[in-house]
Each structure stands twice: as structure tokens, then as C-alpha cells.
Amino acid sequence: MSQAISPELREWLVAQLAAGHSVPALRASMRAAGWHDAAADVALAQLEAGFPNVEVALPSVQAKMPGPDLDGAPLYIDAGDRRVQVLQTMRHPRVVVFGNLLSTEECEGLIAAARVRLARSLTVETRTGGEVLNVDRTSDGMFFERGENEIVARVEQRIAALLRWPLEFGEGLQILRYAPGAQYRPHYDYFDPNEPGTPTILKRGGQRVATLVMYLQEPEGGGATTFPDVGLEVAPARGCGVFFSYDRPDPVTRTLHGGAPVLAGEKWVATKWLREREFK
């Protein structure tokens, strides 16, 4: 009895290869699932040879990645001018929740400096390389230039020390305000390599490889940062932050995330995106 090699099976095999599983490991998994050796060998050989209409070329993987030093499972990390708490960690995706990341004075100072410059938030348009309004994102926001004022410079230096990534590799700090009902539906932060505008975007500093969201003002209800693929929700507590990294621009990183609707009050956040090289 023959076993058909369906498009779904090919897609599953491609996803497993993208996740770093070896061909021998996939062959063993197929055998354990009841596939005959001959059928498993044919399916894997087709992938290795480049089966028509199946994309097997994997996005390049970033060798060195930003992130805190978690050797020894520390409860606190010295970020230069501040002792930052490690509240929660996850390996895949790499997620770290920080406490005591920002002081009350820093949170209030960033909000005050940003408030007069807020406008409806835009998102990067990967089809053109420009920016557009996005119905999935209903916040107001603005960007600071790197080192624009004393508080911004201090926070950026702290982030560079905490995440062991050059300050120059970071985009400008973005401040966002979410009013009641505002949200950001689940999305990825990397730039889709298949979109025509991505090469233009990448000229400024390469791919995004990590995100740090810092909570400046907590709402009265709602507003969690959600990771639907892994069932994680991070409460937006003032002064805390959530970091996550993605070593390739691909859903296999499991970094799909969003901002849940604010149910009451206002949520303010500061976001720092990190690139693979100097951001200009």
C-alpha cells in the first residue's frame, strides 16, 4: 500500500527543518508516526533536492543575538546604573520579563516629553519601505532620536548594558499611548523578506532581531502583551518590561505577539527595536 506525500506533509517537514531539526531526526519521527521507510526517504529526498513549489530555502539565522546574561539563573542583573529584576524567562521563544527596569521618574519624564508630539501610530509598510496607518494598530505614538534628552540617553545606555547589544544598533525609542479600547493585534516585528519593500528598509541597519517593550503607565484593566503561539500574557506593570528575540525573520521563532485591548484607563509603553547592525 502506497503512502501519499501530501502538501501538508511537505509544509510540516519544511517547518521542522526551519526549526533546526535534522533530516535523520525527521526520518525517525516519520517512522514513529507509521510512515514506511521508502515513503519517508522519498519525501525527505524531494525536500533536499528542492521539490517544485516547495520553499525549502530557510531564512538566514543571526549568529550573535542580543539578550541578558542568564547564566546561573540570576534573580537580578547589573545594568550599569540599575539593578534589574528577572521575573520570568522562556527559552522558545526567548522571552524575558524584567522588573525595576525603569524608575517612576523616568516613566513620567518620558510620558511628559512625548505627550505633545503624539500622532496616530504608523507601521512600516514592507511592500514599499514607507509607513502607513494600520487598522490593527489603534495607538498614538512618536519616536525620540537616540540620545535626544537626558532620560532617553540614560535608558538607552541601560538597555545596551542589559541586553549586551551596541547602543548604535537600536532604533530610536518609540513611545505609545493606548486609550480605552486601543490595541495592537498579533503581528511579528521582523521585516518579511518576501515583501518588495524590505530591501529598502534593511539598508538602515539590517533586520530587527529583538524587541524590548517597557511599561510607563499601567491601565486600570487590560492591555497585556500577548504571545498567542505559546499562551503567554505579560501584565503591563509600570517600570517593568518584556524582551523577546528572533534569530530569523520567520514564524518558526514563535514571536507572534500583540497588545490586548485596554479595558480602562490608559497604557503607555516605550519600545526599543534592535537591529543586526548600526541603525542609521
UniProtKB/TrEMBL annotation:
Membrane in keyword set: no
One matching Pfam family: 2OG-FeII_Oxy_3
Q: Which InterPro entries match?
A: Oxoglu/Fe-dep_dioxygenase_dom, P4HA-like, Pro_4_hyd_alph, Pro_4_hyd_alph_FE2OG_OXY
Name the enzyme group at the top EC level. Answer: oxidoreductase
Might you give the EC number(s) for this enzyme? 1.14.11.2
- Give the source lineage, highest ranks first: Bacteria, Pseudomonadati, Pseudomonadota, Betaproteobacteria, Burkholderiales
Which residue numbers delimit the Fe2OG dioxygenase domain? 169-276
| Cofactor (UniProt) | L-ascorbate
Write down the superkingdom of origin.
Bacteria
Any idea which GO molecular function terms this record carries?
iron ion binding; L-ascorbic acid binding; procollagen-proline 4-dioxygenase activity
* Keyword Metal-binding (UniProt): yes
> Which key words tag this protein in UniProt?
Dioxygenase, Iron, Metal-binding, Oxidoreductase, Vitamin C
Protein name listed in UniProt: Prolyl 4-hydroxylase
